[in-house]
Amino acid sequence: xxxxxxxxxxxxxxxxxxxxxxxxxxxxxxxxxxxxxxxxxxxxxxxxxxxxxxxxxxxxxxxxxxxxxxxxxxxxxxxxxxxxxxxxxxxxxxxxxxxxxxxxxxxxxxxxxxxxxxxxxxxxxxxxxxxxxxxxxxxxxxxxxxxxxxxxxxxxxxxxxxxxxxxxxxxxxxxxxxxxxxxxxxxxxxxxxxxxxxxxxxxxxxxxxxxxxxxxxxxxxxxxxxxxxxxxxxxxxxxxxxxxxxxxxxxxxxxxxxxxxxxxxxxxxxxxxxxxxxxxxxxxxxxxxxxxxxxxxxxxxxxxxxxxxxxxxxxxxxxxxxxxxxxxxxxxxxxxxxxxxxxxxxxxxxxxxxxxxxxxxxxxxxxxxxxxxxxxxxxxxxxxxxxxxxxxxxxxxxxxxxxxxxxxxxxxxxxxxxxxxxxxxxxxxxxxxxxxxxxxxxxxxxxxxxxxxxxxxxxxxxxx
Length: 464
Ligand SMILES: *Cc1c(COP(=O)(O)O)cnc(C)c1O
Description:
By secondary structure, the protein is of the alpha/beta class. It has helices at residues 11-16, 21-26, 29-50, 59-74, 100-111, 133-140, 151-163, 184-190, 206-213, 240-250, 277-283, 308-316, 318-322, 327-339, 343-349, 351-356, 360-373, 414-422, 449-463; strands at residues 82-83, 118-119, 124-125, 144-148, 167-171, 177-179, 182-183, 194-198, 218-224, 253-259, 287-291, 302-306, 379-388, 400-409, 428-429, 431-433, 436-440. The structure holds pyridoxal-5'-phosphate. The site of pyridoxal-5'-phosphate (PLP) has 14 residues, from helix 7 and strand 10.
């Protein structure tokens, strides 16, 4: 018996065949040649496992394989997905989806030139740091504002500007990891400041801060919002206003790493009380940092709000150049902030807020419809109540009641169906729970329902 590997066609023979004409019409010859070589290598490998059966029967089958390889390679690496996980601010899925106005502003800023660092009035060089500042001042009452790349950069910049070479007091209950390797002690040491731990994990009192401030070369107090976990039981932490009074008395800089960035009223979103930037500024912190792409609902950014002098010093810090924000982000952030001038508009237009406040009845109706329209016979589908989370390291312990469609494939495992859904050109990301694929309607935009239905039918059939 001859080795089937010896009978594989040559590259030139395939390229010259009639079957390859459409492929060569669609792609440059060089790319087709490379893909043919790869298809041959793949077939050789498969022959080892499957024998003759792995060899395409004819030129048309070779052309199909090569065409598939090329179309997969044409998919962008970073591409849109449908988030059916129920996690609204899913860091792995890009956190906050953007409003229509924000998207349009970003396209506009990317399309051509802009006055990013150009003073249109004077016709001379301006500063990128003027954009968004007036809006942020109006919305939060801050004296000044500075936008950088993300909140992590904001923390490093603030501590480096205010406490490099000096000690920074942090409660032991706040020496946390926020996620993605953002650990407060590491960030602090990279900023050039020296960590001085205060209190215990569960209880820190004002006197602990006062004692720690004595004698040493303390420059600042850092307060960190425990945004991604809760501690409960026998606990005590110092009120921001008391920390502010102590900082003033001792001449220390008080910085609050707040993270979540909620600007809207948590009550209107069905969320429990959540600290907000304007409240901490009122309580007397010198500066506070928030993320642009968490509960604010905008693009990735870090926003520092605070006293004029303090924020001005940060703007002059050379590190600010390394953390600088780009024009497309600034355009999206400005459009997002503008929604907040009218809170109802913010709740309506900003997708993360809209998803948070989506009425349960609407989710139930959409889940019912999706379930009814699924093709029968490939999976058992049912509608069920469920619970989602806000995500993105915010609102720990908050369950968002929701409606789900739960699918149990008949001839495949739920993991196989989930994988099939992820392999679509526009992937659908789901949870798998109790041997079912769970589709949470809260994080699916209503205008994605038709696409989701088609995707579920296609993937279920491919699995069946
Ligand atoms: C999310 C978060 C960060 C990190 O923010 P990024 O914008 O992701 O860099 C820092 N601190 C707190 C308290 C956070 O919640």
